[in-house]
Amino acid sequence: MVSIRDMPKEELLLPGHAACPGCGAMIALRYALKALGKRTIMCVPACCTSVIQGLYPHTSIAVPVLNIAFAAAASTASGISAGLKARNVEDVTVLAWAGDGGTYDIGIQALSGAAERGDDIIYACYDNNAYGNTGIQRSGATPYGAWTTTTPTGKKEHRKPLELIMLEHNIPYVATACSAFPDDLYMKFKKARKIKGPRFILILSPCPIAWRFPSWSTVEIGKLAVKSGAWVLWEYHNGKLEFTGWSKLIAEGKLKKIPVIEYLKHQGRFKPILKDEKAINEIERRINDYWKFMKALKEALK
Ligand SMILES: Cc1ncc(C[n+]2csc(CCOP(=O)(O)OP(=O)(O)O)c2C)c(N)n1
Ligand SMILES: [Mg+2]
Hints:
Oligomer: single chain
Structural class: alpha/beta
CATH class: Alpha Beta
Mean pLDDT: 97
Radius of gyration: 18 Å
Order of helices and strands: HEHEHEHHEHEHEHHEEHHH
Bound molecules: thiamine diphosphate, magnesium ion
CATH topology: Rossmann fold
CATH superfamily: Thiamin diphosphate (ThDP)-binding fold, Pyr/PP domains
Helix content: 25-40%
């Protein structure tokens, strides 16, 4: 593990950006850019980040950024990567940085195509579980039971397991991360940077506005997501799967998962189901199924 003191001092996400207070996605971007360094080109589709970066000709992101259409994160990244290759530029990382709506939903075909072609890009999805920028509509990432403006009584479906869909593309690197653990996230981006081919990192990014919690609780909420097992930190590389951070401790039986209600009860978005025992049990069942599957997968890949 790396200490924050050992990370580069240089900030590539500059102060003065337009994120809401407590934005989990910007914690993630700050440390992702520290890991990737200045020789990075970013593709940002329509999402909160394209607003946060500021209005042209000003920007809060100190690497070149292309603002592109909602569905086009992966295809633009693929094109830039091909252009760099044609010019024999080998030391530039192409980073697609997209929200969950732009990834789980509208951007999935371009992402799947880039993965299938083996394009040399890092695709990072910061997952705030909703279409944040347009006023909190449900996405394929919104968890079961969560309020959004289009699921006023709580979402009736579970989240699409996008990270597993990407794993099935047989690409060299797939990882999950969380804004509450910048050291784990930094290491994953650092590792991904050195690998050739498509790399996919899915980052749980708590959002105070959409999840209905105070802006100072972002890190605490992210920690509760991992502690309850609702979000699992892992990484797949060289055909092997490893749990990381607190998820590794949970997998090894060194840390006991806390009941998921401890994670849900601090978020206003789960109000519709907080007193519904059946719904809470359904969420626990899904968590346990996911863990069972991931542990079996780790064994199978040994
Ligand atoms: C084709 C198309 N449909 C809809 C929109 C409107 N739109 C812009 S951003 C956005 C939501 C993005 O959600 P997500 O990808 O989760 O990113 P977040 O805003 O949460 O950061 C939508 C629906 C658009 N720009 N283009
Ligand atoms: Mg989103």
